[in-house]
Amino acid sequence: PWSPKALRGGQGAQFVVPIEQGVDLPAWCAQFKGESLALALAEERSVFSSDLTGPLAFIVGNEGAGLSDDVRAAATATVQIPMPGKMESLNASAALAIAVFEAVRQRLV
What tens digit of pLDDT does each residue of 54-90 get? Predict the structure, then answer.
């Protein structure tokens, strides 16, 4: 997140949003005082029907392997972004952007 291209693309968000790298995610989820939501496919709970107004951390895996079973189990809940028709999935950054937008939207209303 600190390369010149990433800083330019983040438009300063790196200095406002806490960034965690190289963390033991199951242990981190266990100590986090808010809700940790894993974004994944094939879940019944939609990110849009979730209360995203409190302390919150989104956990996103990569496009290939997704999240490990132990990370999914450690998360408070697993949610999905509903996709119309036979669309398979969004890439990780697009999914996170939609989830963060929904969290911001809920806090503004």
Answer: 999 999 988 778 889 999 999 999 999 988 877 777 7
**Residue in 92, 100, 108, 94 with CA at minimum distance from that of residue 48:** 100
Location of structure tokens 């033991």: 24
pLDDT of residue 108: 96
Cβ atoms 90, 81 nearer than 8 A:
yes
May I ask the CATH architecture of the domain 22-108?
Answer: 3-Layer(aba) Sandwich (3.40)
Measured distance CA(3)–CA(6) in Å, rounded: 5
Are the beta carbons of 34 and 54 closer than 8 angstroms? Answer: yes
Give the residue extent of every domain in the chain. 22-108
- pTM, full prediction: 0.80
| Rounded Cα distance, 64 and 71, in Å | 16
